[in-house]
Write a structure and sequence with these properties.
- The complex is a heterodimer of chains A (about 220) and B (about 130).
- In chain A, helix 3 crosses helix 6.
- With about 220 residues, chain A is mainly alpha-helical.
- The two termini of chain A are about 35 Å apart.
- Chain A contains eight helices and five strands, in the order H-E-E-H-H-E-H-H-H-E-H-E-H.
- Chain A has a single domain, classed as Thiolase/Chalcone synthase (Peroxisomal Thiolase, Chain A, domain 1, 3-Layer(aba) Sandwich), CATH 3.40.47.
- Chain B is mainly alpha-helical and about 130 residues long.
- Chain B has one domain: ACP-like (Non-ribosomal Peptide Synthetase Peptidyl Carrier Protein, Chain A).
- Helix content of chain B is about 50%, strand content about 5%.
- Chain B contains six helices and two strands.
- In chain B, strands 1-2 form a two-stranded antiparallel ribbon.
- Classes of the chains: A mainly alpha (about 220), B mainly alpha (about 130).
- Chains A and B meet through helix 2 of A and helix 2 of B.
């Protein structure tokens, strides 16, 4: 069996769009949890979350953004950083794999399009499926880096990314591929989705002056 | 071909591709305009919105001019993109969709070019 090493890392988080910003925040023990901006104020019992202050126009042109939900944008930007730090350049071909973890897919896109449909608009954008599908991040990475080996997405709730990394590990270890891009992304901060979490009573009302525990996106 | 129709279709293509209007001309192929399968679907959707029509994917037993563009665009569609890649690897020539083909389709449909509602209903396209 071959040994497997991590050669590059990329992170998009509430601390910023790079691994450096993420690691600095974690190492200093500071919090990135703050008032949410992606849902209307007052629509939920809680107000704070680890929301990424992500500006897509810094990373993608206008046309690219037509096809990418926020969660897929995160995946692509993190993969760029990881591959750059690993000094791997496109095209990586069929000896490279991508395994991403994603449970909820493009929630914002789904919310926007279905809301319009239920409000009487009979036409739904043809980009709804490419933006919503859970493997959109993996698909984008494969196109950008010319990866034509195994490309797929694992959906196992909150364990999705860990399972993705585990799958990629075994593919490299067994010799099925030389290199793999692995990780996960979610962007579940749409009103419908957060309302659903709220209904499960797993999100806590924000106590005055304290931070609640919520998922990062 | 009505110049207003040309201008409106070209404007849609330029808007969806995020490219200057004057870079889109009738003789350009989709490939030259960097229009891939998803772009093609998006453009068709926006053209339908622009003219208030619905371009059918297929009309069994009828080879209406309106079916030309969707059929040709399938050479760039998600399912056949792989085929396109495959064929290209083997050196085969692939048909290239042209902007004027889309315009021909619209003229056949009557959408937005002064055709009455009754006439449009009997054409290959469906008014919406």
């Amino acid at each position: 069996m071959r040994r497997v090493v991590v050669t590059g890392v990329g992170v998009v988080s509430a601390f910023g769009d790079t691994f450096g910003e993420f690691w600095t925040g974690v190492a200093r023990g500071v919090s990135a949890i703050r008032p949410m901006t992606l849902v209307p104020p007052g629509s939920l019992r809680f107000v704070n979350a680890a929301e990424a202050a992500f500006d897509p126009s810094r990373h993608f042109d206008e046309k690219e953004l037509l096809y990418l939900d926020r969660f897929a944008q995160f995946a692509a930007v993190a993969a760029r950083e990881a591959l750059a730090s690993a000094r791997l350049a496109a095209p990586l071909g069929d000896r490279a794999a991508i395994v991403t973890g994603c449970c909820t897919g493009g929630q914002s896109t789904e919310d926007e399009n279905f809301q319009a449909l239920y409000a009487g608009n009979q036409r739904v954008s043809p980009m709804t499926i490419p933006r919503v599908m859970g493997n959109a991040g993996a698909s984008r990475i494969s196109r950008e880096f010319g990866i034509t080996g195994p490309v797929y997405t694992i959906s196992t709730a909150c364990s999705s990314s860990n399972h993705a990394i585990g799958q990629a590990f075994w593919m490299v270890r067994s010799g099925a591929v030389e290199v793999a891009v692995a990780g996960g992304s979610e962007a579940p901060f749409s009103l419908g989705f957060l309302k659903s979490w709220e209904a499960m009573r797993v999100l806590r009302r924000t106590p005055a002056g304290r931070f609640p525990s919520t998922a990062a996106a | 071909m009505p110049s207003e129709l040309n201008a409106r279709v070209i404007a849609v293509i330029a808007r969806m591709q995020k490219i200057p209007v004057d870079s889109v001309t009738l003789d350009k192929t989709f490939q030259e305009l960097n229009i891939d399968s998803l772009d093609g679907i998006n453009i068709m959707f926006e053209v339908e919105n622009e003219f208030g029509i619905e371009i059918p994917m297929k009309r069994p037993g009828r080879s209406a001019p309106c079916a030309r563009w969707p059929r040709e665009s399938r050479s760039c569609s998600p399912s056949s993109k792989h085929e396109y890649t495959y064929r290209r690897r083997r050196g085969a020539r692939t048909r290239a969709c042209r902007v004027e083909t889309l315009l021909d389709t619209l003229v056949a449909c009557g959408g937005g070019v002064g055709m009455s509602a009754d006439a449009a209903r009997t054409s290959a396209c469906v008014t919406v």
